Amino acid sequence: MLNYKPFHSKVVEPFTAFIAFSASKILNLLGTWTSVSGTNLSSRDFGINIVDGCNGVFATAILLAGIIAYPSRIKEKLIGILIGIPAIFIINQLRVISLFYLGRTHPTVFEEVHVYVWQPIIIVFAILVWDFWARNFVQKGKVRKAFVSD
User: Fold this and answer.
1) At what angle do helices 74-105 and 119-137 cross, to 10 degrees?
2) Is the separation of the CB atoms in 19 and 96 below 8 Å?
């Protein structure tokens, strides 16, 4: 679904551009003057292109799959979605902004931190958000079982 061309061009690409745009605004507020063009975020001395895998969409998909698959009421699922999507967006913004600063100041470690530190953090964060939701917002024992055995 994420790579289905109409979905990707109408949802994923504009969302990724929004990530670059909002990161640029935050960086500008923090005194690092940046510009954005589509998914490219740049300053005078450094630039990044936010691509699939770096936009938080896969982590969001993992979270949504867990919420949808978990036995819970629709209202509980909606709470999980309303908590989870913004939470992943925020942590991903922290990721983009911190990587931007890191790339400007320590470009030799940028790729390692990008791939080996932030990628696992985002995935683990999605799992922790799901766990937080399941423990705090799902009423145990109140969901009808999908299959009843005699």
Assistant:
1) 160
2) yes
Give domain limits for the chain. Answer: 5-137
Distance, CA of 65 to chain centre: 14
pTM, 2 dp = 0.87
Taking only the tens place, the pLDDT of each residue in 42-92 is 999 999 999 998 999 999 999 999 999 999 999 999 999 999 999 999 999
CA–CA distance from 12 to each of 46, 91, 117 (Å)? 24, 18, 23
DSSP assignment of 66-122 equals: HHHHSS--HHHHHHHHHHHHHHHHHHHHHHHHHHHHHHHH-GGGHHHIIIIIIHHHH
- Measured between alpha carbons, how far is 134 from 128 in angstroms, rounded to an integer? 10
Distances (CA, A) of 136 to 104, 111, 130, 139: 40, 36, 10, 8
